[in-house]
Write a structure and sequence with these properties.
44% helix; 463 residues; eight-stranded mixed β-sheet; single chain; elongated
């Protein structure tokens, strides 16, 4: 395709006197065509018809372009022998035209559809032994998505070859914790911003809290909520049809920057930072934007993956967050065994203080019974189980974060740090380094001496 530009110049400039003008015209046509093609295919053609039909259309456009080029040869304006035109050239041209058109039609017919399993697993497809059943596959303007179901009934939501959410107990616990933690730390949350719909489980968990009046879900891919959400209706509590929920289709950075609304809770569950574009939701500038959209006493949470990550990337994520939320805390997702797989960053505009006695009194009220059931289903039989997932804060993790490099908009260093070992499984080692300096967080919890003693024992078991 790159060779077509100089050929077009040579063709158009043959009889042109003003070569600068003809170069400008060809360059303008090339630019307009590039813009129209990129926008038209990404925004209209692929979301409406998919990549298979898009490829067929591209072949058709290429054939049409070839026909236009051949028009002067097949039907010359003047065909006289003194101009060197041989009548047999038309027959030869028609022959080549017929052969080329036939081949193009064969190519159009044989264009295969995109593999649903490829959409689901991407580069990991060759490692899958027992491929799950694909329930849904779709190609959107920003990403390709799939929903699969294993033989044991576990469903997973995939984005461009990466599992982003599932009903596996381990994933389900994390998805719910991203809602439970901020909703329990905040004394009376009423408004929530959820960045990324996923399977809708985090957003749906907020519906359990009696004081919640408004939930805004910011999702960049319009294909996801209406097509993926129904497959997880039981887990997300049919969040799409709740009158308190509003879905905004926008880039999270743009929405947080331009919205005038403030929230009691903002929670983000991006894809791994090595996935293109995701690292922008882990930058210092993004956290500052989020902090500016919190109501007084508001809480923000952010997912931090330990699996498929390297230690430098995790340290960068944590240190960047703590640069903005100086009193932020880090929590794990394993209630009893300890160890690491997923972590949750939690921050407020000011110090975080958890009054355990007040929290206990709140959750035993009748209207909190659905919340308790959800916590028990997630593996937390008590507040002690939940709060013993504390990993550390700025002081306890200072030695581990000493060499951490901040992730900034101007360098997006995290995307490259994470990308070097995207398939690594070093989560246990990373977790062990983060909790090396962990003591007991006296300033974090207000509780009885007995409860604190029990927490000390629980933290000692998970170190």
């Amino acid at each position: 395709w790159g060779a077509s530009f100089p050929l077009a110049l040579a063709s158009a400039a043959r009889n042109a006197r003003d070569t600068g003008r003809i170069v400008g015209d060809i360059y303008a046509a090339n630019t307009v065509g590039a813009i129209a093609g990129a926008v038209g295919f990404s925004v209209i053609v692929i979301p409406m018809w998919g990549t298979q039909q898009a490829e067929r259309l591209l072949i058709g456009v290429a054939v049409l372009a070839g026909l236009l080029v051949l028009v002067p040869v097949l039907w010359p304006a003047r065909a006289t022998p003194d101009e060197g035109y041989a009548p047999g050239a038309r027959i030869a041209g028609l022959t080549w035209l017929a052969a080329g058109t036939t081949m193009a039609l064969l190519l159009v017919i044989t264009v295969p559809p995109i593999s649903p399993q490829l959409v689901a697993w991407g580069r990991l497809l060759t490692r899958q032994k027992d491929l799950p059943r694909v329930l849904y596959v779709g190609e959107g303007a920003n990403s390709s998505v799939a929903v699969t179901e294993r033989a044991d009934g576990v469903r997973a939501f995939h984005v461009s070859g990466k599992v982003e959410a599932s009903t596996d107990p381990q994933d389900l616990r994390l998805e719910r914790m991203l809602a439970h933690f901020p909703a329990l730390v905040h004394p009376n949350p009423r408004s929530v911003l959820v960045v990324g719909f996923g399977a809708g489980i985090t957003a749906g968990t907020f519906l359990l809290y009696p004081g919640i009046e408004r939930i805004v879900i910011c999702e960049i891919e319009p294909l996801i909520p209406p097509n993926v959400g129904p497959y997880f209706k039981r887990e997300n509590l049919d969040v799409l049809n709740d009158p308190r929920v509003e879905i905004v289709y926008d880039d999270a950075r743009h929405y947080v920057l331009t919205s005038k609304e403030h929230f009691d809770i903002i929670t983000s569950d991006p894809i791994h930072p090595w996935v293109k574009g995701s690292a922008t939701l882990y930058t210092k500038e993004y956290y500052e934007l989020v902090k500016g959209r919190l109501n007084p006493g508001g809480v923000v949470t952010e997912w931090v993956p330990l699996y498929e990550s390297r230690e430098e990337a995790v340290k960068s994520e944590v240190a960047t967050f703590l640069d903005v939320f100086a009193d932020g805390t880090l929590w794990g997702s394993r209630p009893a065994a300890g160890g690491g797989y997923d972590l949750i960053l939690l921050g407020q505009d000011g110090p975080t203080r958890i009054d355990v006695d007040a929290l206990q009194r709140r959750v035993v009220r009748p209207e909190y019974l659905p919340v308790i059931r959800s916590l028990v289903e997630s593996g937390f039989a008590s507040m002690l189980d939940l709060l013993s997932t504390w990993v550390g804060d700025r002081a306890s993790m200072a030695p581990a974060l000493r060499s951490a490099q901040p992730n900034l908009d101007r360098n997006l260093r995290l995307q490259y740090l994470a990308g070097f070992t995207a398939g690594a499984l070093e989560h246990e080692r990373i977790y062990a380094h983060l909790v090396e300096g962990r003591g007991f967080p006296e300033q974090l919890f207000t509780a009885s001496t007995q409860w604190k003693a029990q927490l000390r024992e629980a933290l000692a078991r998970t170190k």
